[in-house]
Amino acid sequence: MASHRRPKQPNRARVTVLTTAAAAAVVLSSQAANAAPSENPSKGEVKAKVDKLYQQAEQATEKYNGAKEKQEKLQKEISTIQDNVAKGQQELNELRDGLGSMASAQYRSGGIDPALQLFLSADPDDYLDKASTLDQLSTQQVDALKKIQEKQRELAQQRSEASGKLKDLDSTRTELGKKKKEVQGKLGAAQKLLNSLTAEEKAQLAEEEARATRASEREVLKASGSGSGSDAGTAAGTGSSAPVSNGSGRAGAAFAAAQSKLGTPYVYGATGPSSFDCSGLTSWAYAQAGVGLPRTSESQTGAGTRIYSASQLQVGDLVFFFNDLHHVGLYAGNGQIIHAPRSGTVVRYESMNTIGGPFMFGVRV
C-alpha cells in the first residue's frame, strides 16, 4: 500500500531570507535608477561643483602663497646668518692668530731670567721699556682670550639659529609641495567636470559670466559718474580701459593700477604684471601706489583700518570674503569690486553679491 506523505513545508527562516533579499534588490534597483541621472549632471550641477572646487583651490592657493612667502623669508634670514657666521669665523681666526703671535713673543722674551736680562742689557732703560711691553702683552693676551670666548659663543648661537631655520625651511618646502599638489588636483577635477559639458553648455556658461561682468561695469560707471550703462565697454574681456576712478590718494592710485590690468588672466600664485591671483592683484596694485602689502589675503587684513559696513566702503578699499578670508579684491563703488576671481577667468569687475561667499569687512589702507 502506497504511503501518503504530506508535502514538505518551506522553512520559515529561508522564506524570510528570500523575502528580505528580494526587497533589498528592489531598493538597490530603485537607488540605481535614481543615481543614473547623476552620471550626466546638468549644466547647473556642473557649475555648482566647479565653483566649489575653484573655491577650495583658492583656499589652497592662499596657503601656498603663505608657505612660499615664509620660504623666501627664511632663505633670506639663513643667508644673512651664514654671512655673519663666515665673517665671525674670520674674526675668530684673526684673534687666534694674534694670540699666537703674542704667546710666541712672550715665550721668546721670557726664556731668560729678567734679572739676568737686566744685568746683560747694554741699555737698562731699553730693557725697562721692553719689560713694560711684556706686561702689556700679558694684559692683551687676557683680553684676546675673552674676545675669542665671546666670539665662539656668538658663532655657536648663530649656527644653532641657522640649523633651526634650515629645519623650518625644509618643512615649509614640504608644505609648499603639498599645497601646490592640492591646488593642481582641485583645478584638474574642475576642468574634468567642465570637459563633460557640451559645446553649447560651455558657451551658455561663458555668456552668463559675460552678462554678469557687463552688469558690473555699468554699476561702476554709475558710481564714477562717467556716463550711462550704454557707455560701458568690455574691459574684462578685452583689457580695454575702464572709467577713471573717483578714488583719491593711495587708494585711488592702487585702484587705477588694478583697472589697468582688467582682462589679465588669473594664475594661482602669480603677482603680476602679466597674471595674478586675488591677493597678488591687490598687493601689486598697492605697490604701484608706493604701499607694500603682505602677500596673502589673510595677512592683508592687518594693513589698515577695518570697515565692517559695506555702505561705508570707498573706492580702493580692500574687501574680504568668506569666513577664512581667502579672497580679496578692491572696492569699485556701487556694490562692485575689481578682482582676480579664479582659474579660467581674468581680472574683472563683479558684484559683491555674486562672489560666492559672504562679505566679511573692508580695510582702508
Helix and strand pattern:
HHHHHHHHHEEEEEE
Low-pLDDT segments, ≥5 res: 1-7, 12-38, 115-120, 227-245
Main sheet: strands, sense, barrel: 6 strands, antiparallel
The structural class is alpha+beta
Shape: elongated
Rg, alpha carbons: 38 Å
Helix content: 55-70%
Q: How many DSSP helices? A: 9
Strand content: 5-15%
Overall pLDDT: 78
Count of extended strands:
6
What is the first-to-last residue Cα distance? 111 Å
Strand order of the largest sheet: 1-6-2-3-4-5
Oligomerization status of the protein chains: single chain
Care to describe what's here?
The chain has helices at residues 12-35, 43-109, 114-120, 124-195, 199-224, 235-238, 249-259, 278-288, 297-300, and strands at 305-307, 318-321, 327-333, 336-339, 348-351, 359-364. By secondary structure, the chain is of the alpha+beta class. The chain has a 6-stranded antiparallel β-sheet with strand order 1-6-2-3-4-5. Strand 3 and strand 4 (336-339) form a beta hairpin. Residues 1-7, 12-38, 115-120 and 227-245 have low confidence and may be disordered.
Keywords:
6 strands; 6-stranded antiparallel β-sheet; alpha+beta; 8% strand; 9 helices; 365 residues; elongated
What is the element layout, followed by pairings?
Blueprint lengths: L11 H24 L7 H67 L4 H7 L3 H72 L3 H26 L10 H4 L10 H11 L18 H11 L8 H4 L4 E3 L10 E4 L5 E7 L2 E4 L8 E4 L7 E6 L1
Antiparallel strand pairs: 1-6, 2-3, 2-6, 3-4, 4-5
